[in-house]
Amino acid sequence: MRTLRVRCVVTVSSCVLAAACVRAAAEGGDPKGAHNVAPASTLPRGDGCAARFAADRGIAALPSVIFADDFEGGDYGTKWDSARDDAGAVLALVDLSAEDARLGRKTLRVTATLGKNTGGGVTKWFASADTLFFRFYVKFDPGCDYVHHFCTLRANKGLAGGDRWSGFGGAGLKPAGDERFSTALEPWGDWGRLPPPGRWNFYSYWHEMAKSPDGKFWGNAFRPAAQPDIRRGAWICAEFMLVHNTPGKPDGEQAFWIDGELRGHWRGINWRTSPALWANAFTLESYVTDSWTKNPVNVVCFDNVVIAKEYIGPAGNDPRRILDGAVAAWHLADLSDGAGADSALAAEGAVDVGVPLGEAERAESLRRGGDGRAARFSGGRLSAGQGAAGELNLASDALTVCLRLRDPSGRFDCPLFSKYGGHERLVYNFFSTRIDGDTVLGFELGTEGGMTQVTAPLSMIGPSLWHDLIARYDGAKVQLFADGVWLDEGFPIGRLRQGNREPCLIGGQSRDGAVESGFGGLVDHAALWDRALTDAEVEALSGGGAAVSAARARILGAPRPLQYFRPHNKFNVGDTFPLYHDGVFRFYYLLDRGHHSAKNGLGAHQWAQAVSADLVRWEHQPLAIPITDKREASICTGSVFVNDGVFHGFYATRAADRSEAL
């Protein structure tokens, strides 16, 4: 049984929502999520104003941005107004630039050591606004234990003198409506019951908060009914919103997002009674005590902090940094390799490198991490051999290949990028050929279990246009993308093949010394990674969200009514199992590739889903239960049930060894 990936869509009248939230505020927060209106909320999700700024560079110039710090300046003291750094042993700027292309090179690290300090952080005072958004990236070290308090927004009486501190302190005390209020987005460990550091939670003080069982007024909790545990060892994009209420009226709000997903939204909060009281101080900190924390050293890292008057969302990926992190990346202004150990190219036949692109083409190249120059192929090829120190012979169970190119004639029908040697020996091979009278674009992957091929008709994507071709293998499936649009996938078995001594060729393929080529067109750049790029990285290398959305509309066409719906390319709809819950019709179905022929006839079915509030307008959502492990051969037909707001799938599974189990 698995928990399903769902995005709820519920229709509830606004007056009912407001009344429910007023009750939640009066009763002391919402610790069980009974009044969380996130499923029906009209607040934005996914990309926000930060999406068009790679690694947040330049975002501070937006009129809606109040404050931004990516810690690249080398001294957090120049932007933040106050720091808590006991004996200089808590705060440090460190270089973690290889970890995430959405972030810069410098990161603020907070180290809390039990018995020596309680951690620390930095605070910024600012001119407030009616609605505020706070976004930061955070990574909990793999060994990080529970955190007592975290990132807090406080309302103070003013920005000068003693008034700027009026919102600090007061733990266990109920504030007056003209004195202070605060809310913190922080991990909640349920007193040691949840795996550390816990789950996301609002911890709020205001003048209508409820009394705790011990007679004191500890922060009231607001949290969803169900959410996953916080991941350690990975960067997380956290954002929260506060809407000031009309003084004395219960029309304030707060909400939070994790990685662009709206997790919680509460309305009807009477934060203040005085128009002079504004939320105007934000503290970024990790405060640790030994109440439940047992690990002696607990490390939390922060980056890319933004305070704004509009939804911020995740930072834009920097495509150049993604390319810089490849095993090899050839930008083709010359024959050098711009990443890794410099697996330089050698020209064989008619190829010209360093060809300047026109103004519009250059802009699109730069948008994808290119340099505005390309190689013009007239039947020749470029060879990288085995790469510097053999680095192009990948010893991994994952890879990604990227190729940006254009054939103005639209003919293709030739090898494009390969380490070939025939189907029995190839490791990776981008190609175009004719199959059953139609020209297809394809990718082949060689693993211990054999060769897996994924293809799509060239006519589907537009034969003579520029294309960003990406093939990605994550150990469980190989996927083919064109212009950021997922076109096909297959299900290899095992690690990448080893021992292939054929050269890595751009515009060609070789087998036992016999080389084929014939591409006539332009290649902007080519790159190879020994890992599976993320969806966000694929999107960034394909021109960004807007470009991918436009490509999806061009390639897949307008959505069809569900009764006439058929997935694209080789996919089909298998068994279906509908569900109605909380005003939403959910249509789950088996996504079938090639009529049960995938994964050597084992099926490789996955659960797909579409949702509707009226049975007329349907929204197709991400796979509910995808294949994520190479041992899974098929996610078979089953049923869905809901328990305490959490969707569960019950199904049989077919394993790669052809055994079956529930």
Share of β-strand residues? 35-45%
Shape: globular
Provide the structure class.
mainly beta
Reading off the top of the CATH hierarchy, the class of the largest domain is best stated as Mainly Beta
Question: Would you spell out the secondary-structure blueprint of this structure?
Answer:
Layout: E1 2-3, H1 14-26, E2 65-69, E3 82-84, E4 91-95, E5 106-113, E6 119-125, E7 131-140, E8 151-156, E9 181-188, E10 199-205, E11 220-222, E12 236-243, E13 252-258, E14 261-269, E15 278-287, E16 297-308, H2 319-324, E17 328-330, E18 346-348, E19 351-356, H3 359-367, E20 373-378, E21 381-385, E22 399-406, E23 415-419, E24 428-435, E25 438-447, E26 450-457, H4 458-461, E27 467-473, E28 478-482, E29 485-490, E30 504-506, E31 508-511, E32 514-517, E33 520-529, H5 535-541, H6 545-556, E34 571-581, E35 584-593, H7 598-601, E36 606-612, E37 619-625, E38 632-643, E39 646-655, E40 660-661
Antiparallel strand pairs: 1-39, 2-16, 3-6, 4-5, 5-16, 6-15, 7-12, 7-16, 8-9, 8-15, 9-10, 10-11, 12-13, 13-14, 17-33, 18-21, 19-20, 20-33, 21-30, 22-27, 22-33, 23-24, 23-30, 24-25, 25-26, 27-28, 28-29, 31-32, 34-35, 35-36, 36-37, 38-39, 39-40
Walk me through the structure:
The protein is mainly β and 662 residues long. It contains seven helices and 40 strands. The strands form seven sheets. Strands 2, 4, 5, 7, 12, 13, 14 and 16 form an eight-stranded antiparallel sheet that branches.
Can you describe this structure in just a few lines?
The chain is mainly β.
